[in-house]
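Memo to structure team: turn this sequence into structure tokens by end of day. - J.P.
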Amino acid sequence: MNTVADCLRRHYRVVVFAVYLAVVIVTMAFHEPWFDEAQSWLIARDCSYRDLLLVRPHYEGHPPLWWLLLSIPAKLGVPYEWGLKGVELVCSALMCGLLVFRAPLSRLAVVLLPFTYFLCYQYGVTLRPYALMCCALFVIAACWKSRDEHPWRLTAAFVLLCCTSSYGIALACAFALVWIVRAIRGATGRPAVRDGLFGNPARFAAWMVLLAVGLVLTACVLPRSDTFGAVQDPGGNPPIAQFALFWTVLPAESMFTAFAGDVSLHGLQWAFLRLRCAWRCHWRFGACWHGSRCAARTSICCWSRMFC
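Reply from structure team:
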């Protein structure tokens, strides 16, 4: 008994990794792909590589890396769910392997983290490039301390992050800005800005490569003129009104991607804003202020204007 316990204690990382894969595989067997997950498979199967690289990103809003990975089994004739889930399983195993075997975490964190909701299901089971994004982030964390001595390692991780998602491009940009600011602040030569930017030629070249990749991928995902987010619906709210409604009525992640294409913001009437303000006054002042009656009357008027 002691021998088994000692073996588990010594090789607990292997046990955690094996249990994680077992949980993910069993959950995948019962996971029915969502429509967007299935759409990625259809894009990978039916589009030519030219369309995958140059056309579809403008309509999907993300870089083509995920479709390129799916195109390997899809174009080889692998059955739909086997191919889609097989690619995701490989990415999930890589994500968990980096976390379990490479992360400098305590034993308790290594045992618990892989089985949290996001790492186990949202990133491990759902058939989207989330696991790849996590892999890139884990590699970035591992390479961050040696970023100035080995800039190309970190830059390669940033490039992978950019290729996984449009959100990855924004994250890589933020990390790169922090890197540049720290390089300037830590410069010993004078002037500090010039020394921080150009004092390390390899690092500066890596920055330029990362900038080029970011610009190319951003141009790759810019919406075409005939996409939903770029076409103004007749009678809908103009972009300025949608921007105002985002801050006052319906905060959402669409603000940072394409709030102009958000259906809720596109057709929401301004009467809803008056309704919200009225209810705020009502709950804030209540019976201590006769305005609560006003709030109730305004609410009824707003509801009738929106739905009648």
